[in-house]
């Protein structure tokens, strides 16, 4: 998992803690909620692109 990667959030999210954060690695991307940083979703590159496409369509 991306334990050694830095977590980032969008600059659009402001100072609040109501954000989705990403940790991008060489072969995976992990997603977590800034309010609850424990659970995370980790995707390989292709499934992550499919995940984003699905989110954009909803």
From TrEMBL:
Which is one Pfam family of this protein?
DUF397
**Domain DUF397: start-end pairs:** 6-56
Q: What is this protein called?
A: Uncharacterized protein DUF397
Q: Which organism is it from?
A: Saccharothrix texasensis
């Amino acid at each position: 998992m991306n334990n050694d990667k830095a977590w980032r959030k969008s600059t659009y999210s402001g100072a609040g803690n109501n954000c989705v954060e990403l940790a991008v690695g060489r072969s995976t991307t992990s997603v977590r909620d800034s309010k609850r940083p424990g659970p995370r979703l980790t995707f390989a590159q292709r499934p992550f692109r499919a995940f984003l496409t699905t989110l954009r369509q909803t």
